[in-house]
Specification:
Elements lengths: L1 H26 L2 E9 L9 E6 L12 H9 L4 E5 L10 H12 L4 E4 L9 H13 L3 E2 L3 E7 L2 E7 L9 H5 L7 E5 L6 H6 L4 E4 L8 E2 L3 E2 L1 E2 L3 E2 L6 E5 L2 E5 L17 E9 L2
Parallel strand pairs: 1-16, 2-3, 3-4, 4-5, 7-8, 8-9, 9-15
Antiparallel strand pairs: 2-16, 6-7, 10-11, 12-13, 14-15
Helix pairs in contact: 3-4
């Protein structure tokens, strides 16, 4: 009996010790930084910095996401791109999503496109989200392209709605100005070949949640659309001149916890190769 009591006590102690770790693992923010060099970057966009946010799923890091906003501000971004799932379809909080965009827009211009969770919303709920983001100062790119013009030098930002992944619309909305830098925001990374064939220089994706549980020396364990041991869960992946940037994301959905996979803010700095 004493041996059983000792085993039970050891299990309770182990669980008690693990709780703070799992809390830290799911709430301690980290930054991953990458550099993309291209001859398309002239002096106006040499050093241009993009912060990439994905898969927030209504999660808050402090009141009004104060810790997340502080970390974004510390990166001194020129723009912020959000590659979908800012809200969760299972526990939707439109107010939290709009609140984040409002705070982030005070740091830098925000460009957003939908993920698979927003595409599950009713039309009324999706309209409320989109109008809220626009009122908060964000730019919603739903199968359309925005342009930043700095003294005649241009940078294009295209948003591909998640609902349009299986259409042919990407070729129609991508800019034809091949001498300029083009960014693409699209949620699901397993369509990497589609994105790079479109001519986008830097496609930004999320969706995979870093594989949810990251195994040292192996990578992610599972991701939607890719199954077990997925190939595309994080990092920068080159295809010719294109570099696909995949965020591990910030929140969770069906699987409520991350292991060895802290919430991530991604920073990409564009540098001139001239």
């Amino acid at each position: 009996m004493k041996k059983i009591h000792k085993i039970i006590a050891a299990v309770i102690a182990a669980v008690a010790a693990a709780i703070p770790y799992f809390y830290w693992e799911n709430n301690s923010l980290t930054v991953s930084s990458y550099t993309y060099e291209t001859p398309k970057a002239g002096k106006e966009f040499d050093g241009f910095k993009v912060v990439h946010i994905s898969d927030l799923h209504n999660k808050r890091f402090g009141k009004k996401n104060s810790r997340l906003i502080k970390l974004i501000r510390e990166q001194s971004p020129d723009i912020i791109v959000i590659s979908g799932d800012i809200a969760d379809s299972r526990h939707t909080d439109i107010g939290a999503a709009v609140e984040f965009v409002s705070e982030a827009s005070g740091v830098a211009p925000v460009y957003y496109t939908t993920g698979n969770h927003e595409c599950r919303f009713s039309s009324e709920k999706l309209d409320r989200l989109i109008s809220g983001i626009q009122t908060a100062g964000g730019f919603v790119l739903s199968d359309e392209t925005a342009v930043i013009d700095c003294n005649g030098e241009k940078l294009y930002i295209t948003g591909l709605a998640d609902s349009s992944l299986h259409s042919d619309i990407l070729d129609d909305i991508m800019p034809q100005a091949t001498e300029s830098i083009s960014l693409l925001i699209s949620h699901q990374p397993q369509y990497i070949d589609l994105y790079t064939k479109s001519g986008a220089d830097i496609p930004f994706c999320g969706h995979a949640h870093g594989g949810q549980f990251r195994i040292p020396g192996v990578g992610g364990f599972i991701a939607p659309g890719q199954g077990f041991f997925p190939k595309y869960t994080e990092g920068m992946h080159y295809r010719g001149e294109s570099a696909v940037v995949i965020s591990r994301g910030l929140g969770s959905s069906i699987i409520p916890s991350r292991i060895n996979n802290r919430p991530e803010v991604v920073v990409v700095t564009i540098k001139s190769a001239n």
